[in-house]
Amino acid sequence: MLVNFLVEVFEAGRNAGLVVVATVCDMGANNVKALKQLGVSEETPLFRFHDQKTAAVFYPPHLLTYTSNILKVYEIDKRNVLYFQLRQVIDRHLKTFAQDAMKVSLAAQVMNNTVAAAIDTHVTAGKEKCF
Fold first, then answer.
1. 65-85: b or e for each residue (b if 16 or more CB lie within 10 Å)?
2. Same structural domain, 49 and 99
């Protein structure tokens, strides 16, 4: 259904003389599914519409909400009895509750030099294969 809507919108744009070069996805399950139906994948982030390549772009702030690597390092850091690297990070930042789910502001607070250094330290030390 959503794919039909996207095609209708692209067609209307084309009829108006526009060239659609990209579409932005907020990573909602239905939106991701529609892009997959159009042939979008990690390997191929493009799809064709009337022989025109169209890029599928995920909305960058929502990418911040996918914090599994940070969560791994946070859990390791929290168990450290001698010192904490991630003092400014709290459970609410990474373990979102229903009212906080997909809050970009919480995810963005975690993205800083200290967290990057902690991830790098754990990866370099071999404690966690984050990537």
1. bebebbbbbbebbeeeeeeeb
2. no
| Domain assignment present for 47 | yes
Residue 119's domain spans which residues?
63-124
Distance in angstroms (rounded) separating the CA atoms of residues 45 and 61: 18
Beta strands in 1-131, from DSSP E residues, in sequence order: 22-25, 46-49, 52-58
Kindly report the length of the chain: 131
Say if 130 falls within a structural domain.
Answer: no
The mean per-residue pLDDT over the stretch 56-65 comes to 73
pLDDT tens for 81-122 read: 777 777 777 776 666 555 555 566 766 777 777 777 887 777
